[in-house]
Amino acid sequence: MLHFSFWKTAAVLALCALGVLFALPNVLPQSVRDFYPSWFPARTIVLGLDLQGGSQLLLEVDGEELTRSRAVALQEDVRRQMREARIGTSEIRLDGRTVSVTVRDAADLAKAQERLRTIAQPISNSVFGATGQLDIEVGQRGQNVATATMTDAGVQSRIRQAVDQSLEVVRRRVDQLGTVEPSIQRQGANRILVQVPGLANPEHLKRILGQTANMEFRLVDTSTPVEQALQGAVPAGTEVLYEEENGERTRPYLVERRAIISGAELTDAQPSFEQNTREPVVSFRFNNRGAQAFAEVTRQNVGKPFAIVLDNKVISAPTIREPITGGQGQISGNFTVQSANDLAVLLRAGALPAPLDVIEERVVGPGLGQDSIEAGTRATWVSAVFVVIFMFATYGVFGFFANVALTVHVVFIFALMSLLGATLTLPGIAGIVLTIGTAVDSNVLIYERIREEFRAGRSMVSSIEAGFKHAFAVIVDSNSTMGIAALILFALGSGPVRGFAVVFLLGILTTVITAVTMTRMMIALWYRRTRPTTMPF
């Protein structure tokens, strides 16, 4: 029999109330939302570039320049290894992606090859699947010549890492503009798509992205308490810098103005684990010049802290426990795996690893965005009105129930998008319009099955029960098929295609809730109140 317990009815009504609560901020002005309590849902759907207007840039990592710079760094590493091993060389030559080492004594060839293999090894203890160095093949060319060649796989791996590093740098640069919800995402293997809603000047955006993040390693001045410096007694050659968390200053440091080494000398940083304690640490590597300078400074300042400064903000201030030689070191502290990974990203993001070329730029005016909003709103209203009229004219009171469920369905979509902080684009509006049609499709399947059962001689209540029971499997199958298609669009698509897929997936989810559970509840309450003997449609 049609039976809904009190608790099930209360749960459905509570869910509807929550949907209205989370969707309501989207239709209220900011002046009203400002009076919301801090715990009250106030997030709104962010309008995408095509609706709000703004600037879009498609950037591409210069793979040739990146390969060239890495090859030069490899040559420097080879020179340092030969010097440390006291291997006499007559020439260390760079030819494309291959470094050739000509040793004076053929007896040193095996030793030279072993040193080259040391360069090819990644930073130890890396646990995140990324190697610290390029994939290098060690070979021999002639009797006295050993070679190290960057492989295609190694170059592609470095390009992928460069895109990851550039994403972080670009994100930091765009955030300086104070824009709302910029979209910065990878596109393809070596491109970055930057969309900044509300920014109408792409030249300004290009200038911002052309800047290089300033990474510096500076000594912390411990001769003067930082509290005293904050009161104005700042020693000559020092300044007070702060750590920042969530955009707010936290801990101050008194650091020397002179940088002991710049981030330009940093070639890599990876999150890893300390061998003995298995605590998360960050392993880093310098080029040859940076390794020598860092070794000398750390040798002279054992026991003293030094600050890692990025854009005049202290991101870490570890203590030098021992001289750091060999161009490698570890930063330890109270790290979690996530915080170690974040610090490694910041270290790598100190400067763009390769030039970013502007492949495409586009400006969407706010007028065009407003036109898109108005056109999308009109399409949504027109489709909704026609669906409502059709359902009511075809199914009578049952159609009215379907229309109520349809309204709740749209409210749920906006509530979920607000809760997830999703961005609404023009394809997203198209997804909403499409889900309006697919939402009532489930009701049509149920109602037509009820009609068939009633015509076959079943009673009213039996027909309703059978209609919901037998149509449910068809509804699940059809929505699952659409869900698979939407997941494929989300996985393989990008930008607007993904926006459409997200809205469509949310619509499929809410359809099952409103068309089956909510509609069934309303029909059950209606039947219990009116006790009809004939079908109302």
UniProtKB/TrEMBL annotation:
Residues 358-527 form the Protein export membrane protein SecD/SecF C-terminal domain. It is found in: Cell membrane. Keywords: Cell membrane, Membrane, Protein transport, Translocation, Transmembrane, Transmembrane helix, Transport. InterPro entries: Acrflvin-R, SecD, SecD/SecF_arch_bac, SecD/SecF_CS, SecD_1st, SecD_SecF_C, SecD_SecF_C_bact, SecDF_P1_head. Residues 163-221 form the Protein translocase subunit SecDF P1 domain. Residues 239-354 form the SecDF P1 head subdomain domain. The chain crosses the membrane at residues 379-398, 405-423, 471-493, 499-527. Its main location: membrane. Part of the Sec protein translocase complex. Interacts with the SecYEG preprotein conducting channel. SecDF uses the proton motive force (PMF) to complete protein translocation after the ATP-dependent function of SecA. Belongs to the SecD/SecF family. SecD subfamily. Forms a complex with SecF. Part of the essential Sec protein translocation apparatus which comprises SecA, SecYEG and auxiliary proteins SecDF-YajC and YidC. PANTHER family: PROTEIN TRANSLOCASE SUBUNIT SECD, PROTEIN-EXPORT MEMBRANE PROTEIN SEC. This is Protein translocase subunit SecD. It comes from Methylopila musalis. The gene is secD.
